[in-house]
Amino acid sequence: MLKNKKVKIGIIGCGAIGEGLALFIAKELKEKTSLYALADMNPEAAIALRKKIAIKPRVYRIDKLIDGVDLIIEAASVKAADYILKKAIPKGKPVIILSVGALIKNLSILTQARNKGVNIYVPSGAICGADGLGALSLGGIKSLTLTTSKPPKGLVGADYLKKKRINLNKLKTTQTVFKGSVKDAVKCFPKNINVAATLLLASSFKKVKVIIKADPRLKRNVHSIRIEAKEAKINIEVENMPSRLNPKTSALAILSTQYLLRKLFSSFKIGS
Ligand SMILES: NC(=O)c1ccc[n+]([C@@H]2O[C@H](COP(=O)([O-])OP(=O)(O)OC[C@H]3O[C@@H](n4cnc5c(N)ncnc54)[C@H](O)[C@@H]3O)[C@@H](O)[C@H]2O)c1
């Protein structure tokens, strides 16, 4: 029996979110887990993060990390998430996915995970009310619209804007830059649209509409979610604040993953 063994956790992606999670796990979950290993395509990032953690996790390549841990956290990129899921599921390793677009690009990966009995976890991120959405997925959702408004600099550089010749540099008023499905939003704005992907997964509603706006008056991202169902009408508006720990990322992305980890380890026992 491995009942009392600590769960070994590995983090892939040692940037803003990876750091917030590593520090939390090492401090708050040390009774039940050990932060065993870190990996990053840029080994310097993993080495720099290791220095900030008292217990000194190993710095591994991705494959070695997957083999060596009980729970993998992906906080890197959609490309990394694709790779990790393909490697981890056949080995029966549970994964927490931050780059949620990877799941939308390839929904069959969830079927593979289910068939293999492997849990894939997605933090609620900016979707406060993910529970309510899950409840409504059992009822009758009629429409679900996500309107994401961002300061233009949060969108500049997306290939889609270049392709459509949309120039946001001198924008004076709000401009809608995208309207479409979650699948297309993930394709066109892979770095920007975790919220849309999480929304689709939480609601199981295939026809989520995504609207992306550039708004020069904004300093922060604002997500408005409108759900119309037979049972309820819900409006959610979230203005993302930068993380106190690392201003490069949103506080909610880190906090919601910490919360997910805390919930997991109040009942997660290995080998029982
Ligand atoms: N689900 C959510 O709520 C949510 C919110 C914000 C960001 N995200 C996503 O989480 C991921 C991490 O975000 P972040 O703010 O920490 O980014 P970041 O740029 O600060 O850090 C990413 C780190 O991952 C590493 N990396 C990138 N590609 C890699 C690969 N293929 N293999 C190994 N390492 C790789 C980079 O070198 C970097 O150190 C991004 O994909 C981002 O879109 C999710």
Shape: globular
Head-to-tail CA distance between termini: 7 Å
CATH superfamily placement of the largest domain = NAD(P)-binding Rossmann-like Domain
Number of domains: 2
The percent of residues in helical segments reads: 25-40%
**Bound heterogens, unique:** nicotinamide-adenine-dinucleotide
| CATH class membership of the largest domain | Alpha Beta
Low-confidence stretches: none
Mean pLDDT: 91
Topology:
Layout: E1 7-12, H1 16-28, E2 33-39, H2 43-51, E3 58-59, H3 62-68, E4 71-74, H4 78-88, E5 95-97, H5 101-105, H6 108-116, E6 120-121, H7 130-136, E7 141-150, H8 159-163, E8 175-181, H9 182-188, H10 194-203, E9 209-214, E10 222-229, E11 233-239, H11 251-264
Parallel strand pairs: 1-2, 1-4, 2-3, 4-5, 5-6, 7-9
Antiparallel strand pairs: 7-10, 8-9, 10-11
Helix pairs in contact: 1-11, 9-10
Q: Describe it for me?
A:
- It contains eleven helices and eleven strands.
- It has 272 residues and is α/β, with parallel strands linked by helices.
- It has two domains: 134 residues, NAD(P)-binding Rossmann-like Domain (Rossmann fold); 110 residues, Dihydrodipicolinate Reductase, domain 2, CATH 3.30.360.
- The chain has a six-stranded parallel beta sheet with strand order 3-2-1-4-5-6, with helices on both faces.
- The site of nicotinamide-adenine-dinucleotide (NAD) has 28 residues, from α1, α4 and α10.
- The site of nicotinamide-adenine-dinucleotide has 28 residues, from α1, α4 and α10.
